[in-house]
Each structure stands twice: as structure tokens, then as C-alpha cells.
Design brief:
Layout: E1 3-8, H1 14-21, E2 26-32, H2 36-45, E3 66-69, H3 95-105, E4 113-118, H4 128-140, E5 144-151, E6 159-160, E7 162-169, H5 205-208, E8 234-235, E9 249-253, E10 256-259, H6 262-267, H7 273-280, H8 285-293, H9 298-317
Parallel strand pairs: 1-2, 1-3, 3-4, 6-8
Antiparallel strand pairs: 4-7, 5-7, 9-10
């Protein structure tokens, strides 16, 4: 059996990487992503497959077994609220409603499973009404929703990254997040693998003054997050490291620090060296940082897909 998936706002293909790692025969019947360089990286990692082109989710249609979407986090984050987060607003924040429209236009046939990942901001009091409307619309379309906050540290990655996962099933069953396989957090030394040639030193005064204990630290700016010196884990991998806040900095000598490299950011999202090297052939370092920051941790998808497939087998045999 070949599992057919549809990746909307697909980024660099975290769901497909997870299925590959599980040894699942998967066909990405299509992949929708508007960022050209992310598309280039995706194509480079899956070089044996058909080449995908940059495209929007708008006016698009196919029939997958599983639909995965993670509309841009600006759509629902507190910062993105300034863009307008209402249905039909015409901004990027309306893209999550496009997903609902696509599902509705499938007609009687619908994907068995829909997975949506987004920032914790969806649960904020200022954004919750939009999230609840999404859940209501999914129920109206016949789906049963399950929602949970998952952190990458629970799945082996030393990255403190909270994200909201919504899994909607057409068979009436709720998804039990307690059944997810979780892993002990791996040592961060396994991920800090870049050599000095890839290092970028933290030497801008605008950054060094935010290092805790630094002699130039401005005590009057304590309300701003200080730069986290990485010991056992890093903060959320972001689209840039040369700004505050970021994922953290690495001490390489007394009072000397460096940023995480693009390679390390990819590894901390669960991609392997081969994935990174393939993408690095077609994307710049700036683009690689952004692609990592916009991705979803691969091991979380591995656990979700494994639980879903086991549940499907049990359901088919009952």
C-alpha cells in the first residue's frame, strides 16, 4: 500500500522526511509552497521524484489520504494579528481558510486525516476565536478533532519548541496523544557538529550586551530576553540567529561565543546530514536558516504517523 499525502504550505517537507524515516511507501501527490528556495531545497532532497514548482494553495485540488497543513505562523500569531486574521481578509492569514475550502470542495470524498501544526498563539485569548472557528468548521465537515501542545524535547531533540498540533479524523475516533512514542532528549553535543569554518561569532555590541553576565550588559533592559548560553538544550529554532531573541549561543572560549550554524539548525529540527547537504547545494545560508526555522520537527511527525498507522491497522482488523 502506498500512502498518498498532500503537503500544503509544505516548507522543506518535514512530514515526508518522517515517513521516509519510518520506511513507509509514500507518494506526495503534490506539495504546495510559495517560497521558491524552499521548493528548491525540497526538490534537492527528493531528487528521484518529480520536480515541484512554486505554487499557491489558492484554487488547488487533489485527493490525498492524509492532508498536512501548517499555514504561515504569522497567520495566527500575536504579531501576525496586525495583518488581519479574519476569514476572507485577503492576507496570508486567510490561507488556513483556503485549506477548509479545499476540503469542502472535495465533495463527498474527503481525506481520512488532516493534520495542522501552528504556534501556541492559536490558544491566546486574542486568537482563540479563529482557532475555535477552524475546529468548528472541521466538525461541520465530519471530522473529530484532537488538540495537544507538543514540545520537541519530548521527542529526542534538545530544542525547547512548543507547538499546537490538531489531528482531525474522519472515522469518528479521537487521536490519543498519550499513545505517542516519546524519546529521551539526546545530548546537544550530538547536534553541535559544525567546524570553525562555519562559525559566526557573536561580536556585535547590540547582541553582546544581552549575554548574561557580560560586563556591558544594560541592567535597564532586563525586560528583554537575554541571550541564552546553550548548555543542554536550545530555544526554538528561528529563521535567523543573528538577532535577539534567538535559539541561543554557544560558548567556544571564556567570554567568546558563536551562533548556531545553519547545519546545526537543520539537525536540531530532525533532518540528517544528507538532507542538509542536498539543500545547501541550492540554497544560501540565509535561506537555509529560514527554512529550518519554518519547519516542523521531524521526530514529532514520525511518532504521529506511527500512531496513526497503528490505529488504522487496529481499526481495519476490528
Amino acid at each position: 500500500m502506498t500512502l498518498q499525502i498532500l503537503e500544503l504550505f509544505g516548507g522543506i517537507g518535514s512530514p515526508r522526511i518522517a515517513l521516509r524515516n519510518l520506511g513507509i511507501d509514500v507518494k506526495s501527490i503534490d506539495y504546495v509552497e510559495i517560497d521558491k528556495k524552499a521548493v528548491d531545497s525540497y526538490n534537492a532532497m527528493f531528487a528521484s521524484d518529480m520536480l515541484h514548482k512554486t505554487q499557491s494553495v489558492v484554487d488547488w485540488n487533489l485527493k490525498p489520504d492524509i492532508l498536512i497543513h501548517g499555514s504561515p505562523c504569522q497567520d495566527i500569531s500575536i504579531a501576525g494579528r496586525k495583518l488581519g486574521a479574519d476569514e476572507g481578509s485577503g492576507t496570508r492569514s486567510s490561507l488556513m481558510w483556503e485549506t477548509l475550502r479545499i476540503i469542502e470542495e472535495f465533495g463527498e470524498w474527503k481525506p481520512k486525516i488532516v493534520i495542522w501544526e501552528n504556534v501556541k498563539g492559536v490558544l491566546h485569548k486574542q486568537m482563540k476565536q479563529n482557532f475555535e472557528k477552524y475546529l468548528y468548521e472541521m466538525c461541520r465537515l465530519g471530522y473529530t478533532n484532537s488538540v495537544e501542545i507538543l514540545n520537541a524535547t519530548e521527542f529526542g531533540l534538545p530544542q525547547y519548541r512548543d507547538r499546537v498540533f490538531t489531528i482531525s479524523r474522519l472515522d469518528g475516533q479521537r487521536f490519543n496523544f498519550d499513545e505517542l512514542e516519546r524519546f529521551e532528549m539526546r545530548p546537544i553535543s550530538e547536534f553541535l557538529v559544525s567546524g570553525p569554518s562555519e562559525w559566526h561569532l557573536v561580536n556585535q555590541p547590540s547582541m553582546t550586551k544581552h549575554i548574561l553576565g557580560h560586563k556591558d550588559f544594560d541592567k535597564n533592559r532586563k525586560w528583554k530576553r537575554n541571550l541564552h548560553i546553550i548548555k543542554d538544550w536550545c530555544y526554538t529554532i528561528s529563521t535567523r540567529q543573528d538577532r535577539n531573541p534567538n535559539s541561543g549561543i554557544v560558548e567556544i572560549a571564556p567570554n567568546e561565543y558563536r551562533y548556531l550554524t545553519a547545519r546545526e539548525c537543520w539537525l536540531l529540527q530532525g533532518y540528517d546530514e544528507a538532507d542538509y547537504e542536498a539543500a545547501a547545494m541550492v540554497s544560501s545560508k540565509t535561506q537555509l536558516y529560514r527554512q529550518a526555522g519554518n519547519s516542523i520537527p521531524v521526530p514529532i511527525f514520525e511518532s504521529i504517523f506511527k500512531a496513526l498507522l497503528e490505529s488504522e491497522i487496529k481499526h481495519d482488523n476490528s
